[in-house]
Amino acid sequence: MMEKIVRMPQLRQLLGEFPGNMKFCFAYGSGAFKQTNNDGNNMLDLIFVVRNANKWHAENLTRNPKHYAKPLRFLGPKVITNVQERSGAKIFYNTLVTTSEGQLIKYGVISEVSLVEDLLDWNDLYLAGRLHKPVKILMEPDENSQLRTALVQNLHSAVHAALLLLPEHFTEIDFFKRITSLSYHGDFRMIFGENKDKISNIVLPQLHHFKQLYEPILKHFDNYVDIPKSDHMAVMCHQDTSPATRIHHLNHLPRTPQVKLVRAWSHGPRSKDTEDCLRAIAHDPECCDILEQCLKEIVWRSSVMQSLKGIVTAGLVKSVKYSGAKIIKMLQSTPKLPKPVPTEINKIVETVVKKTEPKEAEKRVE
């Protein structure tokens, strides 16, 4: 079966169904890009970045009230905005929404300020992590906006972190997998609910997009890493792993990982000067392990809180249906054994999903 990837003109046409006061908009995931094991019916994931979340939700409630779960749709835009900005990764998702053209979508709404903070500081490493990977931009930020600068800085930070976590010799595929893993390692959904090969499934079909995304960024790293220009992704790359270079990378990490590194290394909130601690960490043989654990803690917290918030924002029925579909997809992607163990679990999950499906009339308006 041919995969169903939504094309750019169709994507832009979708925006007409939503309020127009957006600052940035992009599509991501298997509905926008080719991924391994696509099943042909992928939901399209969208992110809307807005200046004023309360104003945007107020207009969207007028246009698309059925997108919101009860009772939030009746509580109004102020309550919805509070739920969005005071919990999780400061994103409000509406999921399993069918557009006028019959496209199944999930869209998240985040304020411009919250996104810039995550891009620069990695407070949640949620959308910052999503933007480490190729996305389809439907609406670009203003030419001189802080958001545009933050998007570039986020990619620089990803390279610094990935190089700290990679050995002296690695392949280009290893490099892009490591970047992708920054926001997946630590995500509790990777334990149960996501395909265990998700990172490879994202990177391998999109190698060309990854190269395009990071080529201008890597020009600033010529003194620290040698990634040969080649179409062969298995070509060996080399980097300087001396303490001096590690200090350089550590000093250019976002603020939140730096704070966590210092606390982890000094075993407590009170510590010496941050710069002195980072210098000492650079000489520590366990530098890579400490950084990886700090990043996992950031991702774990934000993924748990955002998923719990999703039960409220999506409603119980949609939450069960959405999560059930994820679990079924994970089980179906598991290598088949002579006597498959997860068959009964698969049937149970499918039964639960079917029981929670809305009636036919509800499905049309959702």
Note the topology.
Elements: H1 8-14, E1 22-28, E2 44-50, H2 53-63, H3 72-75, H4 77-85, E3 92-98, E4 104-111, H5 112-121, H6 127-130, E5 136-139, H7 146-165, E6 169-171, H8 172-181, H9 198-203, H10 207-218, E7 225-226, E8 236-239, H11 243-251, H12 255-266, H13 274-282, H14 287-314, H15 316-333, H16 343-356, H17 360-365
Parallel strand pairs: 2-4
Antiparallel strand pairs: 1-2, 1-5, 3-4, 6-8, 7-8
Helix pairs in contact: 2-4, 5-7, 7-8, 11-13, 12-13, 12-14, 14-15, 15-16
How are helices and strands ordered from N to C?
HEEHHHEEHHEHEHHHEEHHHHHHH
Total count of helical runs of at least 4 residues: 17
Give the helix level as a range of percent.
Answer: 40-55%
Strand order of the largest sheet: 3-4-2-1-5
How far apart lie the N and C ends? 27 Å
Radius of gyration over C-alpha positions, nearest whole angstrom:
21 Å
Number of strands: 8
Question: Could you state the oligomeric state of the chains shown?
Answer: single chain
Alpha-beta content class: alpha+beta
- Largest beta-sheet details: 5 strands, mixed
The share of residues in extended strands comes to 5-15%
* Overall pLDDT level: 83
Unreliable spans: 334-349, 356-366
Shape: globular
